[in-house]
Task: inverse folding
């Protein structure tokens, strides 16, 4: 999805607070914040992240740090968040002001299933990041996060080059020490160039990677959306939803309008839905045929980039 249907050059993460006017305020209905730092700069009310400001069914969440009531600090309303919020870190400086941020599910997901939902009690466990594109803030993207948070409950992780015996790469290299393997883990962010490499498994001391990921760039030269997916699901599993229109081209054959989808699956995509419009002129049919061929090739590339990536955790 790089410059074809959308423009992610100015994409921004969206703050949110789903609480309605009431005598009771529930913090888990607002932005989750950053489990790594413990702060919540995109939460209009709370200064700290979900893992710090919430309590589990049997007490504090695993690896929560703040105590003494500091974790529950909240302002008097969104007007303070947009202006001056004394509860924020370095509130008198630029750092303490409300900031626009590029979407990154590791640092600014709207909801995170912290520690795979352990000790949640009745607290909702959905995980997603919400953001808008660069030219239309009236429509939103919703990207799934998966069955655990980005830090796996603030767990430690093995070194990515941990050896097993001699120069062999350990099977647990780079993965959390205590957390169980998630059934679905998704990382969503924007990038100008997407590339990477695989650590040499047979000889980790030779200083060379086993394989490279060929650099992926947007034909427009701008940012594009990256979705890294690990899933054990054998069925169609949606990972990205959009509540606006992708403005797809009208095609030939009476003007067939095509639907769009993005997901992770080992099965074929769902059937295309069509809608009949008025008969096109000869010039419109010729132009639409050219667009259809080009559009099909580009769609195949889009789906290959956005749904073909599988990562081993």
Result:
């Amino acid at each position: 999805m790089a410059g074809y249907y959308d423009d992610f050059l100015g994409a921004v993460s969206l703050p949110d607070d789903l609480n309605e006017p009431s005598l009771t305020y529930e913090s888990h209905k607002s932005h989750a914040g950053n489990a790594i730092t413990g702060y919540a700069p995109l939460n209009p009310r709370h200064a700290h992240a979900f893992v710090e400001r919430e309590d589990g069914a049997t007490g504090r969440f695993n690896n929560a740090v703040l105590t003494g009531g500091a974790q529950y600090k909240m302002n008097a309303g969104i007007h303070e968040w947009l202006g001056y919020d004394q509860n924020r870190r370095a509130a008198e400086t630029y750092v303490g002001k409300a900031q626009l941020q590029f979407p990154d599910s590791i640092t600014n997901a709207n909801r995170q299933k912290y520690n795979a939902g352990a000790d949640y009690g009745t607290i909702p466990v959905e995980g997603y990041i919400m953001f808008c594109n660069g030219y239309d803030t009236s429509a939103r993207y919703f990207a799934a996060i998966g069955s655990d948070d980005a830090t796996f409950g603030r767990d430690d992780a093995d070194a990515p080059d941990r050896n097993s015996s001699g120069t062999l790469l350990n099977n647990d290299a780079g993965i959390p020490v205590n957390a169980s393997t998630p059934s679905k883990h998704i990382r969503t962010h924007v990038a100008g160039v997407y590339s990477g490499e695989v650590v040499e498994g047979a000889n980790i001391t030779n200083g060379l990677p086993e394989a490279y990921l060929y650099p992926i760039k947007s034909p427009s030269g701008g940012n594009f959306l990256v979705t890294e997916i690990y899933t054990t699901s054998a069925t169609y599993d949606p990972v990205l939803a959009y509540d606006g229109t992708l403005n797809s081209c009208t095609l030939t054959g009476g003007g067939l309008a095509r639907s769009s989808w993005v997901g992770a699956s080992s099965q074929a995509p769902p059937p295309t839905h069509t809608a009949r419009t008025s008969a096109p002129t000869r010039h419109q049919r010729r132009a639409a045929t050219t667009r259809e061929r080009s559009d099909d090739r580009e769609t195949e590339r889009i789906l290959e980039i956005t749904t073909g990536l599988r990562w081993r955790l």
